[in-house]
């Protein structure tokens, strides 16, 4: 958007609240003028990586002006809109309320960039579909920005004379139904159609809203010609919607369907396997859950974090087995040893040393203590004690770990032990020393 147009938009915002004269803080002028489309696009992507969004916007806007074909201009405008979707300026009021800051989001600029791209005659239907999908993402982002000066959604609703959810629903229905829309993008349109009510109203409020959301996602998961990854995206959304609506059967069915898609992405397979395994383990179906996790470890392309997460969940499975079977003696020792081995396998996925290694053990402990049983808490404290013994860990990191030992006792409701652990937190880490002092005061007052 040209700066003159943006300033005109600011003038409109200034009259949004009667009695307030509002002036935006000036946006700095572009620091560089680019001579070619390629240079401007490369600079914009580099600036995005450096989190310099305002400068990136201007680079992409220049790229759009420098593009020699409509395809190049569209790509530049799409990148500009992506940046604008996440960008904002800080303004301040004048007059009686002088000095009060407010936020001016760039969502209207993003929509204008995308509308401009849609007007280009030389782009194909696939590119037009991509632009329309991104425009809905801007609407979603605008709905979450609650600042009073964000007028995008109200203005769209006023112009369309209907709620924004219906605007999105109708546009995405048309996009998914168009023969020229590629199958994967049809799935994306159906996903956004289903997300509309949840994004704009916080939850699905009526059975009919819920039904057509499920129907849209089901259609996406069965879309002829769509890739496995696109279908998996729809299935994962079904699982999330089932979670919101407390439909446990559908929740499980959706994840099971993802595991049967051979070309789903590694992350999609990881999500489905770990979510399903969590449910199975929680319901004491240990062996099927463990098999899902061991099979998931064989999926190529998983990240270090994903592999580590599988090992952590495998550790949980062994602790859960010890609890559910009431194992004792050698049997219990074997299960807890297996759990320790899985936690160590999670750590070995990285090459961490010093503070980073101590933090990884602390992460193991934080994961374990989500599960409410003394065996989990005991194993969590073991991990924290290992963290304290990590070579070359700083005193600052050790203070944080010691605080977490106190937290683990507190969560287990062992108040005396928690207070004793908090008292060992040193001032090498003033932040966690302060937290420990607060906990001691709280727990001392709470003691009978």
What descriptive keywords fit this protein?
448 residues; mainly alpha; three-stranded antiparallel beta sheet; 21 helices; 3 strands; globular; disordered N terminus
Would you mind describing this structure in some detail?
This protein has a domain at 1-124. The chain has 21 helices and three strands. The chain has helices at residues 3-14, 37-49, 53-66, 70-85, 107-118, 125-144, 152-160, 164-177, 183-201, 207-221, 228-244, 248-259, 266-282, 286-296, 304-324, 329-347, 354-368, 374-388, 395-411, 415-422, 430-446, and strands at residues 22-24, 88-93, 101-105. A three-stranded antiparallel sheet has the order 1-2-3, covered by helices on one side. Strand 2 and strand 3 (101-105) form a beta hairpin. The model is unreliable at 1-30 (pLDDT under 50).
Total count of helical runs of at least 4 residues: 21
Strand content: under 5%
Tell me, briefly, the overall form.
globular
What does the average pLDDT come to?
88
Helices and strands, in N-to-C order?
HEHHHEEHHHHHHHHHHHHHHHHH
Give a brief description.
The protein is mainly alpha-helical. It has 21 helices and 3 strands. It has a domain of 124 residues.
Q: In terms of topology, how is this protein built?
A:
Blueprint: H1 3-14, E1 22-24, H2 37-49, H3 53-66, H4 70-85, E2 88-93, E3 101-105, H5 107-118, H6 125-144, H7 152-160, H8 164-177, H9 183-201, H10 207-221, H11 228-244, H12 248-259, H13 266-282, H14 286-296, H15 304-324, H16 329-347, H17 354-368, H18 374-388, H19 395-411, H20 415-422, H21 430-446
Antiparallel strand pairs: 1-2, 2-3
Helix pairs in contact: 2-3, 2-4, 3-4, 4-5, 4-6, 5-6, 6-8, 6-9, 8-9, 9-10, 9-11, 10-11, 11-12, 12-13, 13-14, 13-15, 14-15, 15-16, 17-18, 17-19, 18-19, 19-20, 19-21, 20-21
